[in-house]
Design a protein that fits this description.
The protein is mainly beta and 430 residues long. The chain has a domain of 121 residues. 14% of the residues lie in helices and 40% in strands. The strands form seven sheets. A five-stranded mixed beta sheet has the order 6-7-8-9-13, with no helix packed on it. Strands 1-29-28-27 form a four-stranded antiparallel beta sheet. A hairpin with an 8-residue loop joins strand 11 and strand 12. The longest helix has 26 residues. The N and C termini lie far apart (51 Å). This is WD repeat-containing protein 89.
């Protein structure tokens, strides 16, 4: 690809500049290096976008005896093996299901009754250890290696805590969970996760809390991919906060507060060295900030789109909602994932000059897509939705069975507990 790109650059130069001029000056490399580099960069981004657009269904999980919305997905980290082995999914029926990553064969199921699970994450150092936050005020650790279906370790919060978001940092040392607002309080609760890979059966108490930085439900938490001390949180109060948890107190730890002007549904890190943060909102807005500009006079806002549904033109289709975002390291490019109520998935490229459609994945889901997970190791995408299906997408894959499952319905009592994408937020705080 590099040689082809170089020859292509030379061809362009020969077309627009006389050969004699190139020979006489002998400064082709110096004079035209920026043009060649731009061509290479454009080719890299275009290649990634083409790869994403070529995603096709490789595997489809079998429908469970008890169908449920698939609300969150994570893939085990390949730290101690050549590739990821497991996929964990949190479901609306208060369970975590574990599948073989390559075949989507069902392996295990864990129940959190009577609490409701919110989020699922694998440990980074051990691919058989998986966590989930729970509405009963705990974060539970499950060990796939054990025969028992009971939690191997429990991280307990304070009596009034109802956890609706959480994450574990890249060194597996700290767990953080966000709470619903109770009276006037909402908390970020922290635990020491050391020794979790051995999952000694015990209940751990919190290290402490942050209580002053948000004043409403803390809906999303995301640790920095490579710096274990950095954390971004988002809330229905519209704020996206960046913390350095190595600092002694909450005031010092708060590095930046960005206002999305809406209720935050998703946060993430992007950019080279992950110095940017972005968020999506419950009314389908998108905000993007460059934290590296905090100590400069340059503006930190890279993009602020009030409604992505109006900003992205999609021929013969529509964009009904956003699911989340993914940053592609190789292309240094941020993408958003959205979709339609009939199950189509839209891949959207983000730039400071606007948003554009990369491609649409059709023929997979038959209802709203709730969750996804991008695996950089083998460039595959996993998606889950309200049709109770878990799908594995790979570039150029061919699915053996093209049977499309019909949409399913879930009891209204469960629907009340599951966030639904709306065109407006009736209860949003201004």
């Amino acid at each position: 690809d590099v040689i082809a790109g170089f020859l292509y650059a030379i061809l362009i130069l020969l077309v627009f500049h006389p050969v004699v001029d190139l020979i006489d000056n002998f400064n082709l490399t110096y004079k035209y290096a920026p043009l060649i580099i731009i061509i290479f960069e454009m080719s890299a981004v275009e290649k990634i976008e083409e790869q994403l657009a070529s995603l096709r269904i490789a595997k489809r999980s079998t429908l469970s005896k008890e169908p449920a919305y698939l609300l969150d997905i994570d893939i085990s980290k390949p730290a101690q093996s050549e590739s990821s082995r497991f996929v964990a999914v949190s479901c609306s029926n208060k369970s975590i299901r574990v599948y073989n990553k390559e075949t989507l064969t069902f392996l295990r199921e864990y129940s959190s009754c009577p609490g409701i699970l919110n989020g699922v994450r694998f440990a980074h150092a051990c691919d058989s250890v998986v966590f989930s936050a729970c509405s009963d005020g705990t974060v539970k650790c499950w060990d796939i290696r054990l025969a028992t279906e009971k939690a191997a370790q429990i991280f307990s919060g304070y009596p009034s805590n109802v956890f609706i978001s959480f994450d574990i940092n890249c060194s597996d040392l700290i767990i953080c969970a966000g709470t619903e607002k109770v009276e006037k309080d909402s908390f970020l609760v922290f635990w020491d996760a050391r020794g979790v890979t051995s999952c000694a059966s015990a209940t751990k108490e919190p290290l402490g809390v942050y209580s002053e930085s948000h004043n409403d439900d803390i809906t999303t938490i995301c640790f920095h991919p490579v710096k274990p001390n950095l954390l971004v949180s988002g809330s229905t109060d519209g704020l996206v906060n960046v913390f350095d948890i190595n600092k002694d107190n909450e005031d010092d730890a708060l590095i930046s507060t960005c206002n999305s002007d809406s209720s935050v549904s998703f946060t993430g890190w992007s950019g080279k060295d992950y110095k940017q943060v972005y968020c999506m909102t419950h009314d389908e807005g998108f905000c993007w900030w460059d934290i590296a500009q905090l100590d400069t006079e340059e503006p930190i806002t890279l993009s602020h789109v009030l409604d992505v549904r109006d900003a992205v033109r999609i021929e013969n289709d529509a964009l009904h909602y956003l699911v989340g975002g993914l940053y592609h390291e190789k292309a240094d490019k941020l993408f958003l994932i959205g979709g339609t109520s009939t199950g189509n998935i839209h891949l959207i490229s983000c730039g400071t000059d606007g948003l554009s459609l990369v491609g649409t994945l059709c023929g997979g889901h038959s209802a709203t897509v709730r969750s996804f997970c991008w695996n950089l190791t083998d460039e595959c995408l996993l998606t889950g939705g309200e049709d109770a299906q878990l799908l594995l997408w790979k570039p150029g894959a061919v699915e053996r069975s093209l049977t499309k499952k019909t949409s399913m319905k879930i009891a209204s009592s469960v629907q009340k507990r599951v966030r639904v994408h709306n065109s407006s937020l009736e209860s949003r705080k201004k």
